[in-house]
C-alpha cells in the first residue's frame, strides 16, 4: 500500500515502544484501530450515498472507477479492442491470389 516492508514496520514498532513506552502502546494501538474502523465506515457511507444519489444505473459503482487513471486505461483498452475488431473484419486475400494492380494509381 505505502511500499512499507517488514523491516520498516519493525523499526516503526521499535521506535513507538521506545518513545511511547510499553504501558501506553496498547491503548494507542486500540485508538488507532478504532479510528481506522470509523474512517472505513465513513468511506462506505459516502460510497452508498453517492450510489443512491446517482440512481440505479450506477448501483455497481466502485470508487476506484472514478480514478482518472482507470478511466483513461478503460478508454484506451476499448479503442485498442475496436482497432483489433476492425483488423479482423478486413477482407484478406486467399493464399496465392494477387491483389488488384492499378497502373494509373501508382
Description:
The radius of gyration is 29 Å and the shape is elongated. The relative contact order is 0.04. The protein has helices at 6-20, 25-54, 68-89. The chain is mainly α and 106 residues long.
Instruction: Decide which structural class fits the backbone.
Output: mainly alpha
**Total of DSSP H or I helical runs spanning 4+ residues:** 3
* DSSP E strands, number: 0
Elements, N to C (H/E): HHH
What general outline do the C-alpha atoms trace?
A: elongated
Task: Give the integer mean of the pLDDT values.
Answer: 84
Strand content: under 5%
Task: Supply database-style keywords.
106 residues, mainly alpha, 63% helix, elongated
Short description:
With 106 residues, the protein is mostly helical. The mean pLDDT is 84.
What is the fold's blueprint, element by element?
Blueprint: H1 6-20, H2 25-54, H3 68-89
Amino acid at each position: 500500500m505505502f511500499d512499507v516492508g517488514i523491516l520498516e514496520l519493525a523499526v516503526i514498532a521499535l521506535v513507538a515502544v521506545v518513545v511511547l513506552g510499553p504501558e501506553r502502546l496498547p491503548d494507542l494501538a486500540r485508538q488507532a484501530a478504532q479510528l481506522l474502523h470509523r474512517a472505513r465506515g465513513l468511506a462506505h457511507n459516502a460510497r452508498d450515498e453517492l450510489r443512491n444519489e446517482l440512481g440505479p444505473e450506477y448501483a455497481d459503482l466502485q470508487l476506484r472507477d472514478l480514478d482518472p487513471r482507470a478511466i483513461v486505461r478503460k478508454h484506451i483498452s476499448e479503442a485498442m479492442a475496436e482497432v483489433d475488431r476492425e483488423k479482423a473484419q478486413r477482407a484478406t486475400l486467399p493464399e496465392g491470389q494477387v491483389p488488384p494492380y492499378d497502373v494509373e494509381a501508382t
